[in-house]
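Lab channel / #folding
Pinned by the channel admin:
"Please post every new chain as: sequence first, then the C-alpha coordinates as a reply. Keep commentary short and put observations after the output so the thread stays searchable."

First post following the new format, from NK:
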Amino acid sequence: MRSFIGVCLFILFILPFSTKAQDTTYVHRPDTLRQATDPEYYNWRESSNDTIIPSIQKQNYLKRPVFRLAISGGTGYRLGRTPEGSEELTDFINNMRLGGQFGIDLHFFLKRKIALGIEYDYYNAKHSGTIENHYLKDNTKIQFIGPSFAGRIPISYRRDAFVYTLAIGYGHFKEITKEADEEESFTGGCLAGKGSIGYDFALSDKVALGIKLSLLFGNIKNFTYT
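Reply from TO:
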Protein backbone atom coordinates (compact mmCIF):
# COMPACT_ATOMS: atom_id res chain seq x y z
CA MET A 1 0.00 0.00 0.00
CA ARG A 2 2.82 2.41 0.88
CA SER A 3 4.55 1.59 -2.39
CA PHE A 4 1.38 2.43 -4.29
CA ILE A 5 1.03 5.77 -2.47
CA GLY A 6 4.66 6.51 -3.19
CA VAL A 7 4.18 5.90 -6.91
CA CYS A 8 1.12 8.16 -6.96
CA LEU A 9 3.01 10.94 -5.20
CA PHE A 10 5.86 10.55 -7.68
CA ILE A 11 3.46 10.89 -10.63
CA LEU A 12 1.64 13.88 -9.14
CA PHE A 13 4.62 15.90 -7.92
CA ILE A 14 7.83 14.73 -9.60
CA LEU A 15 6.82 14.07 -13.23
CA PRO A 16 5.13 17.44 -13.86
CA PHE A 17 8.29 19.27 -12.76
CA SER A 18 10.51 17.01 -14.84
CA THR A 19 8.31 17.51 -17.90
CA LYS A 20 8.31 21.24 -17.41
CA ALA A 21 12.06 21.22 -17.18
CA GLN A 22 12.31 19.49 -20.55
CA ASP A 23 10.10 22.17 -22.11
CA THR A 24 12.16 25.04 -20.70
CA THR A 25 14.47 27.15 -22.84
CA TYR A 26 17.34 29.20 -21.43
CA VAL A 27 18.59 32.11 -23.49
CA HIS A 28 21.85 33.65 -22.38
CA ARG A 29 22.52 37.32 -23.04
CA PRO A 30 25.43 39.41 -21.76
CA ASP A 31 23.36 41.08 -19.04
CA THR A 32 20.74 38.51 -18.10
CA LEU A 33 19.62 34.89 -18.10
CA ARG A 34 16.02 34.54 -19.23
CA GLN A 35 13.76 31.55 -18.96
CA ALA A 36 11.10 31.03 -21.63
CA THR A 37 8.46 28.30 -21.52
CA ASP A 38 6.98 29.09 -24.94
CA PRO A 39 9.31 29.86 -27.87
CA GLU A 40 6.43 31.42 -29.82
CA TYR A 41 6.75 34.62 -27.80
CA TYR A 42 10.34 35.13 -28.81
CA ASN A 43 12.14 35.73 -32.06
CA TRP A 44 15.01 33.26 -31.71
CA ARG A 45 18.26 34.45 -33.29
CA GLU A 46 21.69 32.96 -33.13
CA SER A 47 24.57 35.41 -32.86
CA SER A 48 27.70 35.97 -30.86
CA ASN A 49 25.58 37.42 -28.03
CA ASP A 50 22.72 34.87 -28.05
CA THR A 51 23.19 31.22 -27.26
CA ILE A 52 20.35 28.71 -27.41
CA ILE A 53 20.65 25.23 -26.01
CA PRO A 54 20.75 22.62 -28.85
CA SER A 55 17.53 20.87 -27.75
CA ILE A 56 15.46 23.88 -28.82
CA GLN A 57 17.05 23.98 -32.26
CA LYS A 58 15.78 20.45 -32.78
CA GLN A 59 12.18 21.55 -32.21
CA ASN A 60 12.21 23.14 -35.69
CA TYR A 61 9.50 25.55 -34.71
CA LEU A 62 7.82 27.38 -37.60
CA LYS A 63 5.63 30.47 -37.38
CA ARG A 64 1.93 29.94 -37.96
CA PRO A 65 0.34 31.69 -40.97
CA VAL A 66 -1.75 34.82 -40.41
CA PHE A 67 -4.50 33.66 -42.80
CA ARG A 68 -6.36 30.38 -42.38
CA LEU A 69 -8.38 28.94 -45.28
CA ALA A 70 -10.20 25.71 -44.44
CA ILE A 71 -12.21 23.58 -46.87
CA SER A 72 -14.31 20.85 -45.26
CA GLY A 73 -16.57 18.08 -46.42
CA GLY A 74 -18.36 15.19 -44.83
CA THR A 75 -21.72 14.03 -43.52
CA GLY A 76 -24.45 16.21 -42.04
CA TYR A 77 -27.38 15.08 -39.90
CA ARG A 78 -30.50 17.12 -39.16
CA LEU A 79 -31.60 17.10 -35.53
CA GLY A 80 -35.00 18.80 -35.87
CA ARG A 81 -38.11 17.25 -34.39
CA THR A 82 -40.16 14.96 -36.65
CA PRO A 83 -43.76 16.21 -37.07
CA GLU A 84 -46.64 13.90 -36.25
CA GLY A 85 -48.11 11.90 -39.09
CA SER A 86 -48.40 8.45 -40.60
CA GLU A 87 -45.66 5.87 -40.23
CA GLU A 88 -44.76 6.24 -43.91
CA LEU A 89 -44.40 10.02 -43.52
CA THR A 90 -42.29 9.63 -40.37
CA ASP A 91 -39.95 7.17 -42.08
CA PHE A 92 -39.68 9.41 -45.14
CA ILE A 93 -38.73 12.46 -43.06
CA ASN A 94 -36.25 10.51 -40.94
CA ASN A 95 -34.54 9.26 -44.09
CA MET A 96 -34.11 12.90 -45.13
CA ARG A 97 -31.97 13.69 -42.12
CA LEU A 98 -28.68 12.35 -43.47
CA GLY A 99 -26.97 14.31 -46.21
CA GLY A 100 -23.74 15.68 -47.59
CA GLN A 101 -21.98 18.66 -46.02
CA PHE A 102 -19.56 21.17 -47.55
CA GLY A 103 -18.00 24.24 -45.98
CA ILE A 104 -15.43 27.02 -46.46
CA ASP A 105 -13.89 29.08 -43.65
CA LEU A 106 -11.62 32.08 -44.14
CA HIS A 107 -10.08 33.80 -41.11
CA PHE A 108 -7.49 36.47 -40.45
CA PHE A 109 -5.63 36.17 -37.15
CA LEU A 110 -5.41 39.50 -35.36
CA LYS A 111 -3.29 37.85 -32.69
CA ARG A 112 -1.66 34.47 -32.29
CA LYS A 113 -4.87 32.88 -30.97
CA ILE A 114 -7.70 35.19 -32.09
CA ALA A 115 -9.14 35.65 -35.60
CA LEU A 116 -12.07 37.17 -37.46
CA GLY A 117 -13.47 35.94 -40.75
CA ILE A 118 -16.41 34.49 -42.63
CA GLU A 119 -17.94 31.02 -42.95
CA TYR A 120 -20.11 29.32 -45.57
CA ASP A 121 -21.84 25.96 -45.25
CA TYR A 122 -23.95 23.91 -47.64
CA TYR A 123 -26.02 20.85 -46.79
CA ASN A 124 -27.92 18.69 -49.28
CA ALA A 125 -30.07 15.60 -48.73
CA LYS A 126 -32.03 13.61 -51.31
CA HIS A 127 -34.52 10.80 -50.81
CA SER A 128 -37.31 9.04 -52.64
CA GLY A 129 -40.10 6.83 -51.34
CA THR A 130 -43.81 6.10 -51.23
CA ILE A 131 -46.32 7.93 -49.04
CA GLU A 132 -49.98 6.86 -49.27
CA ASN A 133 -49.38 5.18 -52.63
CA HIS A 134 -47.71 8.30 -54.03
CA TYR A 135 -44.11 8.05 -55.18
CA LEU A 136 -42.18 11.16 -54.13
CA LYS A 137 -38.69 12.55 -54.69
CA ASP A 138 -37.40 15.07 -52.20
CA ASN A 139 -34.40 17.37 -52.42
CA THR A 140 -33.51 19.56 -49.42
CA LYS A 141 -30.84 22.26 -49.39
CA ILE A 142 -29.68 24.28 -46.38
CA GLN A 143 -27.12 27.08 -46.68
CA PHE A 144 -25.46 29.35 -44.15
CA ILE A 145 -23.18 32.36 -44.47
CA GLY A 146 -22.03 34.84 -41.89
CA PRO A 147 -19.17 36.57 -40.06
CA SER A 148 -17.21 34.42 -37.65
CA PHE A 149 -14.92 34.57 -34.64
CA ALA A 150 -12.21 31.91 -34.39
CA GLY A 151 -9.83 30.84 -31.67
CA ARG A 152 -6.71 28.71 -31.86
CA ILE A 153 -5.09 26.73 -29.05
CA PRO A 154 -1.62 25.70 -30.26
CA ILE A 155 0.05 22.56 -28.97
CA SER A 156 3.36 23.38 -27.27
CA TYR A 157 6.41 23.00 -29.55
CA ARG A 158 4.22 21.65 -32.36
CA ARG A 159 2.29 23.12 -35.26
CA ASP A 160 -0.87 21.18 -34.40
CA ALA A 161 -3.69 23.16 -32.81
CA PHE A 162 -7.24 22.99 -31.52
CA VAL A 163 -9.48 25.38 -33.47
CA TYR A 164 -12.95 26.59 -32.52
CA THR A 165 -15.32 29.02 -34.27
CA LEU A 166 -18.52 30.91 -33.45
CA ALA A 167 -20.59 32.49 -36.22
CA ILE A 168 -23.91 34.23 -36.68
CA GLY A 169 -25.48 34.94 -40.04
CA TYR A 170 -28.21 34.02 -42.50
CA GLY A 171 -29.61 30.52 -42.90
CA HIS A 172 -31.54 29.58 -46.05
CA PHE A 173 -33.77 26.52 -46.47
CA LYS A 174 -35.26 25.11 -49.66
CA GLU A 175 -37.11 21.81 -50.14
CA ILE A 176 -38.30 20.59 -53.54
CA THR A 177 -40.72 17.66 -53.78
CA LYS A 178 -41.62 15.97 -57.06
CA GLU A 179 -44.58 13.70 -57.71
CA ALA A 180 -44.93 12.46 -61.29
CA ASP A 181 -44.83 15.67 -63.38
CA GLU A 182 -45.80 17.96 -60.52
CA GLU A 183 -43.29 19.88 -58.42
CA GLU A 184 -43.73 21.94 -55.28
CA SER A 185 -41.21 23.79 -53.14
CA PHE A 186 -40.89 25.35 -49.70
CA THR A 187 -38.42 28.21 -49.24
CA GLY A 188 -37.53 30.17 -46.14
CA GLY A 189 -34.77 31.95 -44.25
CA CYS A 190 -33.87 33.08 -40.77
CA LEU A 191 -31.16 34.35 -38.48
CA ALA A 192 -28.92 31.37 -37.73
CA GLY A 193 -25.90 30.55 -35.64
CA LYS A 194 -23.08 28.08 -35.91
CA GLY A 195 -20.44 26.69 -33.59
CA SER A 196 -17.61 24.29 -34.33
CA ILE A 197 -14.59 22.70 -32.73
CA GLY A 198 -11.80 20.80 -34.45
CA TYR A 199 -8.18 19.75 -34.45
CA ASP A 200 -5.59 20.55 -37.13
CA PHE A 201 -2.82 18.02 -37.77
CA ALA A 202 0.03 19.98 -39.35
CA LEU A 203 1.50 18.42 -42.50
CA SER A 204 3.86 21.34 -43.11
CA ASP A 205 4.26 24.94 -41.99
CA LYS A 206 1.29 26.03 -44.14
CA VAL A 207 -0.82 22.90 -44.72
CA ALA A 208 -2.84 20.90 -42.21
CA LEU A 209 -5.34 18.05 -42.25
CA GLY A 210 -8.06 18.32 -39.65
CA ILE A 211 -11.23 16.92 -38.19
CA LYS A 212 -14.18 19.11 -37.16
CA LEU A 213 -17.56 18.83 -35.49
CA SER A 214 -20.02 21.68 -36.06
CA LEU A 215 -23.59 22.57 -35.12
CA LEU A 216 -25.84 24.85 -37.18
CA PHE A 217 -29.08 26.03 -35.58
CA GLY A 218 -31.98 28.23 -36.62
CA ASN A 219 -35.78 28.45 -36.53
CA ILE A 220 -37.74 29.27 -39.69
CA LYS A 221 -41.32 30.30 -38.89
CA ASN A 222 -42.59 31.29 -42.34
CA PHE A 223 -42.19 29.53 -45.69
CA THR A 224 -42.92 30.54 -49.28
CA TYR A 225 -44.86 27.78 -51.04
CA THR A 226 -44.70 27.34 -54.81
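NK: Residues 78 and 97 are 5 Å apart (CA to CA).
TO: also worth noting, The chain has three helices and eleven strands.
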